[in-house]
From TrEMBL:
Organism, scientific name: Dovyalis caffra
Name of the protein in its database record: Kinesin-like protein
Gene Ontology MF term list: ATP binding; microtubule binding; microtubule motor activity
Coiled coil: 363-432
Family according to the record: Belongs to the TRAFAC class myosin-kinesin ATPase superfamily. Kinesin family. KIN-14 subfamily.
Domain Calponin-homology (CH): 51-172
GO CC entries: microtubule cytoskeleton
Amino acid sequence: MPQETNNGSMFTSPCKNLRGSKGLISSNEASYTEEIINDHELAQRKAEEAASRRYQAAEWLRQMDKGASRTLPKEPSEEEFCLALRNGLILCNVLNTVNPGAVLKVVETPILTVQSTEGAAQSAIQYFENMRNFLMAVKDMKLLTFEASDLEKGGSSSKVVDCILCLKGFYEWKQAGGIGVWRYGGLVRIVSFPKGSPSSLVGSESADESVDESESSQYEQLLEFLHLSDEVANEETKTANALAFLFDHFGLRLLQAYLKESNGIEELPLNGMVIDTLFSKVVKDFSALLVSQGTQLGLFLKKILKGDIGSLSKTEFIEAISQYLRQRTSLASSDFSKFCVCGGKKETIRQIVSNSSGHAEVIDLHQKQLEELRFHYKEMRRQVKQIQEGWDKEVGRLEHHIKDLEAASSSYHQVLEENRELYNQVQDLKGTIRVYCRVRPFLPGQSHGQSIVDYIGENGNIMIVNPLKNGKEARKVFSFNKVFGTNVTQEQIYVDTQPLVRSVLDGYNVCIFAYGQTGSGKTYTMSGPDLTSKQTWGVNYRALRDLFQISKTRGDLVKYEVGVQMIEIYNEQVRDLLVSDGSNRRYP
Ligand SMILES: Nc1ncnc2c1ncn2[C@@H]1O[C@H](COP(=O)(O)OP(=O)(O)OP(=O)(O)O)[C@@H](O)[C@H]1O
């Protein structure tokens, strides 16, 4: 034993739980103690695992054989388990259920309680016959087997448990249709199981032979491997079953879809040949699907191997595969349950695709997108409806507004008409014939002459003085509508004429003309001395300006046509002044 150093660090155990209250213990002592504890834990774990497997086997036997439920406890001890199976009756009955006729002669024995050992001793020969028949049948089926002595004291009940669980796995696979690959712990391989014929077992080696030829340690390793791969094997069996199940549904649904989609189905003679043709297409499609699935799985496995996690142990690799299968199984089953609930053609296609895990993800993605689209569509419909309602309201409001405007417009026109009538009545009241007098100032050179205008009144009177006469005769008063003096502007002259222009546009006839002797100022008043200046425009130009202005204002209501004629009346001759050919045409 090495010496302890002063600080004790060199030889102290890294396991802190080994530090007892008595102080530190040396390295060798610690390792030894640790080993004992580890061995103890390992043994305990193995015992627990063995018990769990034994309970599983017992449970299955109780389910398969009614007699077993009376003689075999639910969770039997190793001794109870061996004792209940020792007469071979339960095993033979169960085997005949799994593979009818496997044991042709089963020796019936009185029901014995598990505590009784006497009964078992009394029928030892009969028991042996049952056991021998069972073991031979199991061997013929190339399943895991054991020695009859394994059920005696000192035997290996674990081999018995393995045999029963192997039988259980085989039975479950057979119940699921016996299609595909069945394997129990990598030892027994069954590539096909045609219905109605004896099972066809193809194995790399016989289980029995392998057990016989193996050493005990090899057998232990084998069992360990069996245990490790047991879960994988079960998953694979489930997958094979699920595959068979999916194929049935896939095939039938696809067949259904083909029949529904083919035109003129009523005329199609549904004979065996047609069904065969369609079904061969279904199989082809399914095969393509499997190839695609296989490719994806291959990629997945390669990805695992090349992953960042580095090299994998076999156990880790198996666990990764199991995890993948579990994920895919749950995904497929959820899709499949949706398919079963919904049914229909679209769902048939969904079913086909959902068999492929990659496609299932795509479908899920599309499903989500479809849901989103549905949501957006609903939202858009709601918004469109909302906008439509808004527009309806707006249109209603506009209609109402237009009606108001129509009413206002109609009353406006009414008012306008009234106004027009009143206006023209005013013009009439002012006089349909109005005579104005304009006094021209002296022309240059006449400024020293004597004016005969004595007085111009506001009421339209003008008093003229005749210097050649006396008394009453010397003064005369003339009355007009209005008299304009010499200092009146062109604008002031037009103000009294302007209202008549509006009357023209209201449909009244109006005539404005100037009358007087030569040189009295007619041209000056009607045209103006200088056309370039708006201030000196005479009545004609101002009237035309207003005419166009008012007709433009009323443009949306009335369309006016304006014509101009210019004539001269001289010496009782009427001449057209706008004739351009110079003929100066005279009117008759
Ligand atoms: N109100 C006025 N203020 C200043 N000058 C005026 C006025 N009225 C007329 N005259 C001037 O008197 C002259 C004669 O006027 P005007 O030519 O208009 O007369 P008339 O009546 O047209 O003559 P006629 O009959 O011969 O054509 C012109 O030189 C004109 O400028």
